[in-house]
Structures are given as C-alpha cells and as structure tokens.
Specification:
Rossmann fold; alpha/beta; 140 residues; 3-stranded parallel beta sheet
Length: 140
C-alpha cells in the first residue's frame, strides 16, 4: 500500500530505489482527531507527536527515491490532501515524483478500468526507473 511504500522510501531510499504510492497515509497526526477519542485526552499532545513520528512525513528529509503517487480525489478513507501535502513536501526536497489522480474515484477504485490503468502505470514506472535506468528530473 501507499503507507508502507512511503515509509520505505522516506526511511531507506538507499535500499528502495523507486516506489508506487497508492492512496497512502503520509501523516498520521492529521488523522488522529478524526479517528476518535483522542481529542482532549491527557496524553493528546504526546499521542499526536507519536503519530507524526510514525509517519512518512517525519522522515521526508531522507527521502531521495522517485515515486509515483496515485489517488482518487474522492477518497473517503485517506483524505486527498495527504497526497497533495506529500507532493509539496517532495517538491521542497527536490525529490522526483509523478502523480496520477483519478477524478471522482474513492479509496478502493469503483471502476475496473481505473484499477487497470493504475497498475499499468505502476508497472511502466518501475520499468522506466528500475529496468531502463531513467532518471526523473527534480521537480521545479
């Protein structure tokens, strides 16, 4: 999934040379209040800090490998702004990325052809980067 892909790339770009992030959570601290009973708890601040430290965003400074980010813009499980925020952070770190957005799609894509398009794009991305050795330009 997207979360594990992002964690691998953020923490171990020397091992993971490229990745495809499919609707991943990149900052758990944003979701904490949405999840439930943490708001107002005595350890709320510590829990929020732990949630962030457990997120790919906390290690963005060490992320170097190219990534293809894929998400539907009507995702109700993972807020679409998780991908938007990641793109901004990667751009600031000059990490190469590509992005694919599926309009009106939810977390578990409803349309079969969107799944096929996403998997095909992932396969082509890995072929270009890992097999053919293509270097993506850093973002502007």
């Amino acid at each position: 999934g997207g979360f594990l892909t992002a964690m691998g790339l953020a923490h171990d770009s020397d091992i993971f040379k490229a990745g495809v992030d499919l609707h991943g959570v990149h900052d758990w601290s944003v979701r904490q209040n949405r999840i439930g009973s943490g708001a107002g708890a005595p350890d709320e601040k510590e829990a929020t800090e732990l949630a962030f430290r457990s997120s790919p965003d906390s290690a963005i400074a060490t992320w170097r490998s190219p990534v293809l980010i894929i998400q539907g813009d009507d995702d109700r499980n993972v807020q679409f702004n998780q991908s938007v925020d990641l793109v901004q952070r990667l751009r600031a770190q000059h990490v190469p990325f590509e992005q694919m957005v599926f309009p009106d799609e939810i977390h578990g894509f409803l349309l079969w052809h969107n799944w096929m398009h996403a998997y095909d794009a992932g396969e082509r991305f890995f072929q270009r980067i890992l097999v053919n050795g293509e270097k993506l330009p850093p973002p502007e």
